[in-house]
Amino acid sequence: MNDVLRAVLVGLVYWVSMGRAFYYFSFAFRKPVVLGVVIGAIYGDVQMGLLLGASIQLMYMGGIEAGGNIPSDQGLAACIAIPAALVNGLDPGTAVALAVPFGVLGVLINNVRRTINSFFNTKGDQLVVEGKYDALAKFSFLIPWLANGVLYFTPVFIATLVGPSAVQAFLDVIPQWVMGGLSNAGNMLPALGFALTLVVMGKRHYLPFFVLGFFLYELLGFSMLTGAVIGLCFAMIASLFVQHNEKEVLDV
Amino acid sequence: MSNGDSARGQEEPVMDQKAVQDSIENVMKSENVSAVTKTDLLKAWWKWCLAVEVPVSFDRMQALAFSYSMNKVLQKLYKNDPDELRAAFERHTSMFNTNCDWGSVIHGIVISLEEQRANGAEEITADMIQSIKIGLMGPLAGIGDSVDQGIVATIPLGIFVPMALQGSVIAAFIPGLVYILWSCGWSWFLFQKGYTLGREAVTEILHSGAIKRVIDIASILGIFMVGCLSASYVKVSTALEFTSGGGTTTLQSILDGMLPGLLPFCVVMGMYLYITKRGPKYLRLIIYTMVIAIVLTGLGVL
């Protein structure tokens, strides 16, 4: 198998793993231990691929992607480090060390994807106004998936093709403060989704409950289930008073 | 068919008994003309599983995946009422984010509510459907993420990765297989459960006449949970420090002493005010945020 074909295949593997079509499958597929076997097969050494993948997997054993926020991109870490390790005959320890920065870089790719996807929201709004609901369906899955494909395929294809040393050099070129700034932006941007939810719900006079939820969580740091129980109690207490008031108004 | 529910909002008068009775009869009659078939449910479920994380964006998270799942169902239910159809698409392309398999109970409930609304149950308002979605998505994400990723995905890895390290190829695939079987089975179960429960629960609520109370409770719960989720996901802290007296103090520690989480709170409220004042210009907001974050990081503020 020539190098270009291999790079294409590894790029496609990364797309399938992080493109997230059929989420349950892609979630299971993007585990480094699974990717190790697949990439090992592409490079004709399943056993070595499995060993490298399982070693990288150990590092990512307990990573929870709360709310879809990936703490580190296991898929990118595996798809760049494993081919590099297979080509250069690196040992698993070195492969793990090589994987770490790409795991972090993958979070940035994910943030870029979520930013690009905002375009499809705007497009979707327009299609709803025009009543083109079948087109809306296309812009909800197929087209975002293909667009994400370009975003995911390209870096892995290039990285696999030009080799690990060139990739390392490229990473060194990006100034630290730009990387840091992007990751800070990634931490701030979820605020947009929540702010928008508040606007959509449109009940301005309930905003104190937002403030209450925010600072209670900030102070106590409970689980979301606990939060729901507390929130439900507040809601029921508040509704008692609302009803009480209405009755009074009616009586008078 | 009612329209402009959101505009009517809180000023809605206390419902009279006659209207409630009529609407119960409508719903009862609608049991016989049920438009949503098992096949429709299965297709809507599959589309949710297929698309869920694909169109995820910062501003509306899984909104498009939700509308993708609902697309054909809504078109079928509201085929004779273009205005209601558009309103339905507007509410189901708004912000949504939850755990993929546990959250599918919401889809079941929403389909059942939309079906009854389409069949003439006017007490099921757009606000109510929206509030139930938002009120449930946070708690389900909380339970779902911790059970799925903390237990179902992690424990099999703990068992089988050591076997993979010893060279067993089969062991590499078992954790993933466990996860896929669990999530497909559980999400389809919850999806159906939501559909049947939503139906019964809503009929019951109509009997008790406590709809407005449910809407209030769901709205408050939803807004409270948005507060908790913001505090959990939005992370901003300042790196500024200065010397005072003998040692150095960080600005962040002073802020934490005043009010923990002040900066993330200001970011959320700032965006809220921007959207209410300037309209929903999401892309512009995202670009502003990125530029500001990079500049502030470069200056050493963040």
UniProtKB/TrEMBL annotation, chain A:
<dbReference type="InterPro" id="IPR050303">
    <property type="entry name" value="GatZ_KbaZ_carbometab"/>
</dbReference>
<dbReference type="Pfam" id="PF03609">
    <property type="entry name" value="EII-Sor"/>
</dbReference>
<feature type="transmembrane region" description="Helical">
    <location>
        <begin position="182"/>
        <end position="202"/>
    </location>
</feature>
<keyword id="KW-1133">Transmembrane helix</keyword>
<protein>
    <submittedName>
        <fullName>PTS sugar transporter subunit IIC</fullName>
    </submittedName>
</protein>
<feature type="transmembrane region" description="Helical">
    <location>
        <begin position="142"/>
        <end position="162"/>
    </location>
</feature>
<dbReference type="GO" id="GO:0005886">
    <property type="term" value="C:plasma membrane"/>
</dbReference>
<keyword id="KW-1003">Cell membrane</keyword>
<keyword id="KW-0472">Membrane</keyword>
<dbReference type="InterPro" id="IPR004700">
    <property type="entry name" value="PTS_IIC_man"/>
</dbReference>
<feature type="transmembrane region" description="Helical">
    <location>
        <begin position="33"/>
        <end position="54"/>
    </location>
</feature>
<keyword id="KW-0813">Transport</keyword>
<feature type="transmembrane region" description="Helical">
    <location>
        <begin position="7"/>
        <end position="27"/>
    </location>
</feature>
<feature type="transmembrane region" description="Helical">
    <location>
        <begin position="209"/>
        <end position="242"/>
    </location>
</feature>
<keyword id="KW-0812">Transmembrane</keyword>
<keyword id="KW-0598">Phosphotransferase system</keyword>
<keyword id="KW-0762">Sugar transport</keyword>
<dbReference type="GO" id="GO:0009401">
    <property type="term" value="P:phosphoenolpyruvate-dependent sugar phosphotransferase system"/>
</dbReference>
